[in-house]
Amino acid sequence: MSTHQTKQRKAITEAILHAPGPLRPNEIQSLAQEQVPRLGIATVYRTINLLMESGEIQAVPIAANDVRYEPTGRGHHHHFLCHRCNTVYDMHGCSGHMSNMLPDGFEMDDHEILIHGKCATCKESEG
Amino acid sequence: MSTHQTKQRKAITEAILHAPGPLRPNEIQSLAQEQVPRLGIATVYRTINLLMESGEIQAVPIAANDVRYEPTGRGHHHHFLCHRCNTVYDMHGCSGHMSNMLPDGFEMDDHEILIHGKCATCKESEG
DNA sequence: GTCGATGCAAAAACTTTGCATATTC
DNA sequence: GAATATGCAAAGTTTTTGCATCGAC
């Protein structure tokens, strides 16, 4: 199965690529609608699933009923969730010592870290 | 608002408490139905939300459309998701050096780590 | 007996699918 | 022109809410 390059797919891919952190499906739709106003949510979900299967993006589970999507290929990084503004930020500089937690006989492929707290912007505005 | 002690709430709480790792709502229902066969899913969700508000349990986001719930008070620990059997295991022994990733001006409250891989049972059975 | 909790069913929210039309190659 | 992609609407899922009844205190 080959795929066609459409303005919808381009707008969706670029929205995800240019975002500073992972986005929710409805956020992806809103951003992509700046390029394609009539873009439907079904196309967003279909495109998300295609991009997931092709490995171009990945899901970032943040909380109950809150999954966001980000491009693969930003290098190894982790995430910060601000509990005031609900933004997820990318963080770099993982020290990587995880294997001491691994139970005997378990095999690790990957790991993800989510830090919870308050971001600099929210700290400033609220003290 | 005070709360009543009911066999439903007891069964749900005990299902979560006695599980070896975090559970999905439908898994909680199935387990609790061993004590209360007519237990409805609405009661499960209502109880999950109550227990979350009171801080007795917490959500563990695992993947898109996969949140599980576990008791607080198991001490600091993290999770392992087996991609063969889809079980989530608790892991202890976090080394805890996260702050080197924290951007300037950000404040960290907590962190969670999810390791992906293959568990010992699946490794044995599949090689 | 009062107030909170439950079960069921309806509603809301989120995600996927079917299908006629439109777009890409 | 053939094959894929889209938008819309309908169907599936998951989670929440309304309400009459039941159960705890």
Please characterize this protein's 3D structure.
Two copies of one chain form a homodimer. Chain A is of the alpha+beta class and 127 residues long. Chain A has two domains: 3-71, Orthogonal Bundle (Arc Repressor Mutant, subunit A); 77-125, Dna Ligase, domain 1. Chain A has four helices and five strands, in the order αααβββββα. Chain A has helices spanning 7-18, 25-32, 41-53, 120-126; strands at 57-63, 66-71, 78-82, 88-91, 107-118. In chain A, the strands form two sheets. A three-stranded mixed sheet of chain A has the order 4-3-5. Chain A has a two-stranded antiparallel ribbon with strand order 1-2. In chain A, a hairpin with a 2-residue loop joins strand 1 (57-63) and strand 2. The termini of chain A are far apart. Chain A binds a DNA duplex (25 and 25 nucleotides) through helix 1 and helix 3.
Q: Could you tell me the mean pLDDT of chain A?
A: 95
Q: What is the fold-level CATH name, i.e. the topology of the largest domain in chain A?
A: Arc Repressor Mutant, subunit A
Q: Name the overall outline of chain A.
A: globular
Largest sheet of chain A: 3 strands, mixed
Number of domains of chain A: 2
User: Would you identify the regions of chain A where 5 or more consecutive residues have pLDDT less than 50?
Assistant: none
CATH C-level category of the largest domain in chain A = Mainly Alpha
How far apart the termini of chain A lie comes to 54 Å
The SSE order of chain A reads HHHEEEEEH
CATH superfamily of the largest domain in chain A: Winged helix-like DNA-binding domain superfamily/Winged helix DNA-binding domain
Sheet/helix structural class of chain A: alpha+beta
Number of strands of chain A: 5
